[in-house]
Amino acid sequence: MPYVRQAIISALNSIGHPSMPERIKKLLKSENPYERESAVKIAGYFGYEECKEEIFNLVNDKDEEVRKVAYENIVFFEDEKIFEILKEGLEKEKRKVREVIARSLIYLGKDKALPLVEIALRDSSPWVRYYGVKSLIHHNPPDLLSILQDLLSKEDTTLVKIIIIESIGKTGNVKAIDILKMLMDTNDKDLLLAEQSLVGLKTFNDFLNYIYEEDRERFKQRYHELLDKTFEYIIDEFKIKKGKDIAYIEMSMVGIMYKGKPAILGTTLDITYRKKMEEELKILSITDPLTGLYNRRGFITLADHTLNLVKRLNKKAIILFIDLDYMKWINDNLGHNVGDQALIDVANILTSTFRQNDLIARIGGDEFVVLGIIGEENHKEKIIERLTEKVKEFNTKEKRPYKLSLSVGYVVYDPENPKTLEELLQLADQLMYEEKRLKKQNSQYPFGRR
After folding, report:
1. Which residues form the signal peptide (predicted)?
2. Where are the domains of the chain?
3. Whole-angstrom Cα distance, residue 386 to residue 379?
């Protein structure tokens, strides 16, 4: 099982919600292509096996972006059909979709991936072949070096030639150095271009400028460790500038003699895609996928930091426990999709009511919490008034088949009379349920029958 899938399953175990797969299955059939695309990403990230067949069907979607994310995410599932689906995509899809498929092959098991890599390496598009080479080096077949040599002899595109040369260096095979030295003596202008990217002493300062300042000292240290023969070879990761964007590379470096002088032979592997996925997984592990707010795990993690800050600043903090009233009625009478929209509406109201640095989270099905720093205890009334006005404004302006009603319980944290986060949440929860109980006694439902 690829390491990314392990990370996804770990994230699912920590934040998954039992009803989420069914909700995602509905979104996968949505008329809106953006909803279908987002649903595929969520199902892939969380490994929702229940959604597998729907995602398989979306490789035939009329929207190209949906097809791309479908191909990109089916590799995270286990099914015998995946091989044939990817094979057909590589043979019949449009160029940009084929590029996505070729790029995704690194996440497929080796036995299934290598036959598909062969197809990608024969593709008419240089970028498909480029990602094919990346997948090839990732799966590392026993005859990798000879395959790369053969590809290099047939390749006529600079982009792909350079990645093949870098991959030859990446093999770590002793014969690779002899091959690269031979290439440096060629008159082929494309390979001379590759030479400039491989020989450290010729382009050291230029290359150093591409590395972000925070990583430069470490790069220079690693460079000199090789020149001083502290290590025979080094593999490390660096953040670099790529136009206006940030990219990440894994660099393999070995000390050699070049034209009678000590030199560094370096090859790079673009790991930006992997790094971005790792960052997304970190975000997903503390974020509620429906509303975009923090989840319970994110709230607990960050709330302790906020309360410590309150102590240092000698301020007070307010914790609000908020429950969306009549959620079951909305789900039963209007449908779960409408119920999801109601939760999203509450999240939007909370983010527009509270400050950007206040901590807002959805910690249960219809339960939200807010933690914010306040100057004085009497500020709490203003906060409640502001929230009440925002809900009224929403119900007046928005043409929803429901009207929002919130039950709120709140407590103030005072550093001079401290309580634990768990105690504060419990008190606020009790006060919220007291308000909800009073509403039920009045038997007044804000819209229609209960």
Report:
1. none
2. 199-284, 286-442
3. 11
Cα gap 249→269, rounded to integer Å: 5
Give pTM, 2 decimals: 0.45
Pair 352, 390: CB distance under 8 Å: yes
SS3 content of the chain, % helix, strand, coil (to 5): 60, 15, 25
CB 402 within 8 A of CB 342: yes
Distance in angstroms (rounded) separating the CA atoms of residues 396 and 194 = 65
Architecture of domain 286-442: 2-Layer Sandwich (3.30)
Task: Tell me the C-alpha distance between 325 and 327, whole Å.
Answer: 6
**Which segment of 205-219, 225-239, 253-267, 402-416 scores lowest on mean pLDDT?**
253-267
- pLDDT exceeds cutoff 50 at 198: no
Domains 199-284 and 286-442 share a fold: no
d(CA 179, CA 253) in angstroms, rounded, equals 16
Q: How far apart are CA 264 and CA 379, in angstroms?
A: 63
> Cα angle vertex 327, ends 281, 442, to 5°?
145
Phi then psi for 55, rounded to 5 degrees? Answer: -70, -40
DSSP structural state of residue 143? T
Question: Which CATH code is given to the segment(s) 199-284?
Answer: 3.30.450.20
What 3-state class would DSSP assign to 59? helix
Residue partners of 33: CB distance under 8 A and separation at least 6: 61, 63, 65, 66
Residues 256 and 9: their CA atoms lie apart, in Å, by 43
- Which residues sit opposite 323 in a β-bridge? 367, 407
CA distances from 75 to 16, 80, 113, 131, 324 (A): 20, 11, 10, 15, 38
Q: How far is the C-alpha of 406 from the C-alpha of 387, rounded, in Å?
A: 9
Torsion of CA 17, 21, 27, 29, to 10 degrees: -170
Q: Token match 């991959």: residue?
A: 167
Q: Summarize pLDDT for 54-97 with one digit per residue, the tens.
A: 989 999 999 998 999 999 888 888 888 889 999 999 999 999 99
**Which two structure tokens, joined as six digits, stand for 218?**
């470490």
Distance CA 106, CA 141 (A): 13
- Rounded to the nearest 10°, the torsion over CA 296, 300, 302, 305 is 170
